[in-house]
């Protein structure tokens, strides 16, 4: 029983120490930041191809990830993916023209690649 009490006490101290350090950094106007996530296209598929060579090349070249979701889709997720894909496609088209579409290794919900 004493072992468990000691473990809980140590975990509590560690947790409060981490919170205290973050609070001190904030108080000193030091930005506490996390790494930014890559923008991602959402693709619905049975198989996750995110580690395939053509997907990795696209990700590296355009700094855009392709996130694979299950093919069992609810309407809410489908709508969000469609909107997000369309917005990201617009950003890429503005930056690179339509050349990125030729290098995209898949089709996207919400994006007309026949431009």
What does this structure look like?
The chain has 115 residues and is mainly α. The protein folds into 2 domains: 1-33; 39-103, no CATH class. The chain has 4 helices and 2 strands. A two-stranded parallel sheet has the order 1-2. The model has no long low-confidence stretch (mean pLDDT 79).
Major beta sheet, strand line-up:
1-2
Biggest sheet architecture? 2 strands, parallel
Regions with little confidence, pLDDT below 50 for 5+ residues: none
Principal-axis shape equals globular
Number of structural units classed as domains: 2
Radius of gyration, in Å, reads 22 Å
Tally of DSSP helical segments: 4
**Mean pLDDT across every amino acid position:** 79
**Beta-strand content:** 5-15%
Number of strands: 2
Helix content: 40-55%
Quaternary form: single chain
Give the end-to-end Cα distance, rounded to a whole number of Å.
68 Å
What series of H and E elements makes up the topology?
HEHEHH
Task: Specify the structural class.
Answer: mainly alpha
In short:
The chain is mainly alpha-helical.
Feature tags:
55% helix, 2 domains, 4 helices, 2 strands, 115 residues, mainly alpha
Question: What is the fold's blueprint, element by element?
Answer:
Layout: H1 2-27, E1 39-44, H2 53-62, E2 64-69, H3 75-96, H4 99-103
Parallel strand pairs: 1-2
